[in-house]
Design a protein that fits this description.
9-stranded mixed sheet; 12 strands; Rossmann fold; alpha/beta; elongated; 39% helix
Amino acid sequence: MVSNVAMAKASHQAVLMQSQRDWRGVMRTMRLVLLLVAIAGAGVWLVQKMNNPNFLPINKVKAQGSFKHVTETMLQTVLGQIKGGYFSINVAQVQRDVESLPWVDTASVRRVWPDVLMVNTVEQEPVAYWKSDGLVNVRGEIFMPAMSNFKENLPVLNGPERTNIILMTHFKTVSELLNAIDLQVVRIDMDARRALVLWLDNGIKLVLGRDATTQRLQRFIRVYPKILAVEAEHIARVDMRYTNGFAITRKL
């Protein structure tokens, strides 16, 4: 009989202890849930706060770079419209807006704590004119600034649409080769058939045609010092499209 009572007590205690453990488990779970809800709520509040343009507003915009053609007025048209806070401002969009300026080649934008936006710009470096209304950089890319304010003496590249990179490649090649005889190219014309005509700084119009242009130019470079240099001021045109020779047109 005693044994049965003891067993009943033990069983009751076991059930009670299990119930307490279960309750503690429930409480721990509830505390964890409440903590997660609080963290999520704080996260939502923080995101909303960070997206608020009035939270830690950008008060200063600093521009750095070598400003030869990019002016403060140009930058002001873009940077003067900046709105947003330290966290909410779209730096990628600001970068795109700055790079949309004709004289800007590349730009980088970064935040500086707590209220500064730093903009670094690299200017375009013009190598040649593109026809009469644009400029070409060293990569052959066309950019279109206000030409009325640009008066530098640069060579001219003139060809069909989408030949600017090809013409820049030709320009680099012929410029390097002509250096050997102290001549410079001042203009390159390419027609619809991709035939080339060079205008040299001594006034000679050099016709290379469409095929084997480098070989024809090298042939001109070989004969120029020996035959043509002494008569250069009287020569209007040299046609190198002949297999074993060339044709000269003299000035009238």
